[in-house]
Structures are given as structure tokens and as C-alpha cells.
Design goal:
Mean pLDDT of chain C: 94
Low-confidence stretches of chain C: none
Chains: A mainly beta (109), B alpha+beta (152), C mainly alpha (365)
Number of strands of chain C: 0
Mean pLDDT of chain B: 86
CATH architecture of chain B: Sandwich
Distance between the termini of chain B: 57 Å
Order of helices and strands of chain B: HHEEEEEEEEE
Radius of gyration of chain C: 20 Å
Number of domains of chain C: 1
CATH topology of chain B: Immunoglobulin-like
Oligomer: heterotrimer
Largest interface: A-B, 28 and 29 residues
Helix content of chain B: 10-25%
Structural class of chain C: mainly alpha
């Protein structure tokens, strides 16, 4: 899967082995709460991202369950220990079955 | 103290108590907080939370009820033997109080997460952290939410 | 590697430009109300020309940034959502009248405060109080009721947004032409009117003041829109405006340990600082207080009108008159017109002894 253009990410391109790096992410998504009504008065159905995961060379770093109080265009920032060069993979799972992914190549020296 | 003074004092105390009751301050822990306690137990199993080590950083007055930054952090060596394995954020005043749950691993390196949340109204936000040896820490922040508007 | 937070960079740059504004305003006696009263009472158009020059320079500079694709003024509050015309008119009138009672508009209050005037300190406190009260406090629901009852969407006027070029484009003028044409006509007209007067051209200090202040407006857009651009936490696009920021500034002083500086707050601080420096260096710094109770009442009332009016109108003489106008927003035109009308009414009322006689005199009844 190609990197989704709805995703913005800030991860350093390289790090020293054992260094703790900060990973900042933001994805474009309405995170519709299911509590809003449209102009006609009908309730707009809920549509949110419910799960987020980050792996480093396929080993889990962090995962999260999100609910409707997470803001639209959800921003998330967390940390990871630089273990080895390879791929950091970020995945967002939305409750309608759509999956968005972003892979970042990192060099660890 | 003469009779007039005693009566006046009683009147003031009674008045204050009545005022406090109408403001909800004299009432016991509101039903909402207990509901949230129940949701927290569903997430973590029965627990006894301690205060002190967990830090919840949010503004006292939210700039926006739609997207308010929040950071939850705790000092932890984040080793396999001793690390924070989960952080749960709950909002006592939101229609659905569980905001998000974050599952960390020793590969996280630091027990700190930041995101942005919706606040339905002025309320208390809670964060819980669960460590690998089963300890539960809690931190609370009262956040005031006003209506926004464009500047000038 | 320790990084200087972006908010600190934006705040410092803003403070510096704000200080330039304050200095220039003090040194050249730049004043919207002064410009109006000079024109109305003495037939002297010099300070009005300085104001119009500032407006033309602000317009040209801001539109140049837009045309170069460096900032998108549609992200500012002046071109957003619905056209709050009722607030603009009512608020503008209140603000204009209020500034005549309080001795000057938002920026003038800060400039006078920098020069030691305690009357303006009181005005600033009252403006800040009423501004935040109107924005999110006791008067907020009333403000929102007005907005919801009267707001018009630009789509109803056939425009993509509420800027003048968009309106003209909606009426049939080709979009590619409408913007440069509007800018050219307004700016050229303003510059010709200002600079054809030999007396004005000779008043180098006044001209320099107008020019400098005009340039601070695009500087503000550049600081927030270019310097403050960040993928995850961009500074809201803004330029100089002084009413809401006075309220924000007071809250910032009171909640410093949990607050972040914004463009508006840094601007207020900068203007006071710049004016203070200019006053000290020219020896004109003087602590001044109220002469009597009537004087104090006028300033209190004026401050309240400016605080509430300024929020309803979404800006003051600088906020709407220069910054808002530089985006060619329709609301800004309405607000500025109402502020001028309110100011003229206030000035006449001072002469005639009251708002009703003043109104009669203004309308030649």
C-alpha cells in the first residue's frame, strides 16, 4: 500500500541506536461523532477511526483505541526507541473498514 | 455571644449551605463521576488508583471545545520488567466518557502521549496509567469550556 | 538539541513589529480619531491622509503576499463563513462613538498608555473586560443571537467568499481580473488622494508614520502565515488588531503559568513598549490621571462601548480598518464605515453637548 496522502508525519530520517525519538502524526479524517444533525435535522451517522497502531520492523511500539471524543483530523504524538534500521509503519483503522497506512524508512546507526 | 449574634450567624450558615446545595457543591459525588468509575473498572478491572506520579497536562480554560491538546506522561524506565503498559483518558462531562486508550510497550521508550480531544462542556478530565506490575495511577484536570468566537 | 518553541519565535517577532508600530504611531501622532477630528473641526486633512496612506500600503503589501502565494488570506477571520453585517454596523457605531469618549481607538489607547497616561490604562482594562465578556462571557449569548439572526452567507450574494473581488466575480467580472482590478483601483485612488497634496508630501514625519504603520500589516500576515507555519500546530493567520487581544492579554497576565502567547497578545505588549521608548527618548513621557469624575465616567463608558463594539464588529480601526480591509473583506468595509460614522457622531456630540443633539447636528436636522 502506498503512503496515504491524508497523513502528515514528523519522524527523523535517522537516529542513534538506543535513542528515544518522537513521532508526530496527523491524519485527515472527519471523526464524525454521530451526535451532529444535518440541515434537514437528520442525525449524521458516526464515522471515526477506532484503532491506531505503530510498529517498528513489524514489532509493536504502541497501539491505541480511539472513540468519538478524539478530535477531527486526529493528531497523535508519542515516542519510540531506535532499535534497528528499517521501517516504521503507522496504521489507522476506521470503523467502516477502511485502513490507511504510512511507512517511514529510518536509518539507525 | 448574645442571642442576636447567634441567630445572625445561623442565618448566614444556613444561607451558605442552601446556596452551596443549589450549586451542586454540597451534594455527594455526582452520579456522573460514579458512572465514569464504572467505565474505568470495565477497562482495567478492579483497581485502587494512586495520585502523584502521573501527569495530565491540559489548559485550565480550553481554547476550543472541538480540539483541545492534552498530554499524559509519567516517569518510567520503560523496561520489560517495569513499564507503563496502558494510558486511559476519560472525560466526566462528555456524552461518551471514554476518550482513548493507549497501549505502550518497552519499545515506546518514554511513557508520554499527546493528542487532541473534544470537550462537550466544562468538566473534569481523568487520565489513568497502568504499570506492568499492576499499579494504577490517576491524574485529574478541571477544564473550563467557554463558547468561542472570532476575534477582533 | 533544544528547540525554541515556534510560539516564542512568533511572539518575539510580533513584539518587535508591534514596537515599531507603537514607536511610529507615537512619533508621527498617527491617530484615526485624531485624523477625523482634525478634518471635521479644523479642515486639516494631514492625519487623515496618513491614515489613508497606511491603508493603501497595507492593502498593497497584503495582496502582494496573497498573489505570490505566500499566505492565503481566506484562512483569516475576515473572509470566513457568514457576513456578520449587523454586528459590523452596530458594533462599528458603538466602537466609533466609544473611542471619542475614551480618547482614542484601540491602538491609540495603547500608545497613550505607553506614554504614561493612566486614563488609557483604565480604558485598556475596561476594553479587555468587555471584549472577553462579549466574546465568551456574560454578553456572549447576545452576540451569538445577533450573528445567527442576521448573518448572510456569501453564497447568497453569488460569491465564493466575502471579499470584494469574489463579489465582483460573482456579478460577472472574470475572477482573474477582479482581484488585481479592485486592488489597483482602491490603492491608486487612495495614493493619489494622499500624495497629490504638497503639504502632506512635505510633512515627512507624518508620511513616514503612515508608511511604516501600513507596512506592519503585511508583516503580521508574514509572521503568522509564513514564520508561524507548522504542519501540526500552525499559528492562526492574523495581523494587527487590538480589541480581543486586550482581553486575551489580561487573561495571559493572570494565567501566565498555563498560557501560551499569541500574536494578538504579543502585539499589544509590543505597541506599549514601542510607544514607551519613543516617549522616553523624546522626553514626552508623563504620568497623567483623570481630571474629575466626569472625565473618568466618559473613559469608562467609552471603554465599555469599544470593548463590546469592537468584538461585535470583529475589529477596531486598525483591526478592521487596516488589517481587515487589506483582505478586501466586505465586513471590514461595513465595519470601517460604521466606525467612522460612530466617531463623527461622537465628535459632534462632544460639541453639541450630548448624543441626541450630536445626532441631529450630524444629520443636519
Amino acid at each position: 500500500m502506498a503512503n496515504s496522502d491524508r497523513v502528515k508525519v514528523r519522524i527523523p530520517p535517522k537516529a542513534k541506536k538506543g535513542e528515544i525519538i518522537e513521532i508526530k502524526t496527523q491524519i485527515s479524517h472527519d471523526m464524525e461523532t454521530g451526535l451532529r444533525k444535518d440541515a434537514a435535522g437528520k442525525t449524521i451517522p458516526r464515522h471515526i477511526i477506532t484503532r491506531f497502531t505503530c510498529t517498528w520492523n513489524n514489532e509493536p511500539v504502541i497501539s491505541a483505541d480511539w472513540h468519538q471524543a478524539v478530535s477531527a483530523n486526529p493528531f497523535a504524538s508519542f515516542f519510540a526507541v531506535a532499535s534497528a534500521s528499517g521501517k516504521i509503519k503507522l496504521t489507522w483503522f476506521d470503523e467502516n473498514g477502511e485502513t490507511l497506512e504510512y511507512v517511514h524508512d529510518i536509518l539507525v546507526e | 455571644m448574645d442571642t442576636t449574634a447567634i441567630l445572625n450567624r445561623r442565618a448566614v450558615l444556613a444561607g451558605t449551605a442552601a446556596l452551596a446545595a443549589t450549586a451542586g457543591l454540597a451534594a455527594p459525588a455526582p452520579a456522573r463521576a460514579q458512572e465514569v468509575d464504572e467505565l474505568a473498572r470495565k477497562l482495567m478491572g478492579p483497581f485502587k488508583a494512586k495520585e502523584g506520579k502521573l501527569r495530565l497536562k491540559m489548559r485550565d480554560v480550553a481554547a476550543s471545545g472541538a480540539s483541545e491538546p492534552i498530554t499524559v506522561s509519567m516517569d518510567s524506565p520503560m523496561t520489560t520488567a517495569d513499564h507503563v503498559k496502558a494510558i486511559h483518558v476519560l472525560a466526566e462531562g462528555n456524552p461518551y466518557p471514554v476518550v482513548s486508550s493507549w497501549y505502550l510497550t518497552p519499545r515506546s521508550g518514554r511513557a508520554e502521549i499527546s493528542f487532541r480531544m473534544r470537550l462537550a462542556k466544562t468538566q473534569t478530565v481523568r487520565a489513568y496509567a497502568v504499570t506492568s506490575d499492576g499499579e494504577v495511577w490517576i491524574a485529574r484536570q478541571d477544564v473550563t469550556v467557554t463558547i468561542g468566537g472570532c476575534g477582533g | 538539541m533544544s528547540e525554541i518553541p515556534l510560539t516564542t519565535i512568533v511572539g518575539s517577532a510580533t513584539f518587535a513589529v508591534g514596537a515599531v508600530f507603537g514607536w511610529a504611531a507615537r512619533a508621527s501622532e498617527f491617530c484615526t480619531m485624531g485624523a477625523l477630528s482634525d478634518m471635521v473641526f479644523m479642515g486639516d486633512r494631514r492625519r487623515m491622509r496618513a491614515w489613508v496612506l497606511a491603508m493603501a500600503v497595507a492593502l498593497l503589501g497584503s495582496q502582494a503576499l496573497q498573489a505570490a502565494g505566500l499566505v492565503d488570506l481566506r484562512k483569516s477571520i475576515y473572509l470566513g463563513g457568514t457576513i456578520p453585517w449587523a454586528g459590523a454596523v452596530l458594533g462599528g457605531l458603538m466602537f466609533g462613538y466609544g473611542m471619542t469618549l475614551a480618547g482614542g481607538c484601540g491602538s491609540k489607547t495603547l500608545v497613550r498608555l505607553g506614554g504614561g497616561n493612566l486614563k488609557s490604562l483604565v480604558v485598556m482594562l475596561v476594553v479587555g473586560l468587555f471584549a472577553t465578556m462579549t466574546l465568551k462571557g456574560l454578553l456572549a449569548m447576545e452576540r451569538i443571537a445577533i450573528e445567527q439572526a442576521t448573518g448572510i452567507s456569501p453564497a447568497r450574494l453569488g460569491a465564493a467568499d466575502q471579499s470584494l473581488p469574489a463579489l465582483l466575480a460573482g456579478m460577472g467580472l472574470p475572477a482573474a481580473v477582479s482581484r488585481p482590478l479592485t486592488v489597483a483601483v482602491l490603492a491608486a485612488g487612495a495614493l493619489v488622494w494622499c500624495l497629490r497634496d504638497a503639504g502632506f508630501r512635505a510633512a515627512r514625519g507624518t508620511v513616514a508614520g503612515g508608511l511604516t504603520i501600513g507596512l506592519t500589516i503585511p508583516a503580521g500576515w508574514a509572521i503568522t502565515g509564513i514564520l508561524g507555519a507548522d504542519d501540526f500546530d500552525p499559528a492562526p493567520l492574523a495581523s494587527f488588531s487590538f480589541i480581543a487581544p486586550m482581553g486575551d492579554g489580561l487573561i495571559y497576565l493572570m494565567t501566565y503559568t498555563g498560557s501560551t502567547i499569541t500574536f494578538g497578545i504579543a502585539a499589544v505588549g509590543g505597541v506599549i513598549a514601542g510607544s514607551f521608548l519613543a516617549a522616553r527618548l523624546s522626553g514626552s513621557f508623563a504620568v497623567e490621571g483623570f481630571t474629575d469624575t466626569a472625565d473618568m465616567l466618559r473613559h469608562l463608558g467609552g471603554g465599555a462601548l469599544m470593548g463590546t463594539g469592537g468584538i461585535l464588529a470583529m475589529g477596531c480601526t486598525i483591526g478592521q480598518g487596516l488589517t481587515g480591509l487589506s483582505t478586501l473583506s466586505l465586513t471590514s468595509l461595513l465595519a470601517l464605515g460604521a466606525i467612522i460614522a460612530g466617531g463623527l457622531w461622537g465628535l459632534r456630540s462632544m460639541e453639541e453637548g450630548g448624543p441626541l443633539p450630536g445626532l441631529r447636528a450630524l444629520l443636519h436636522l
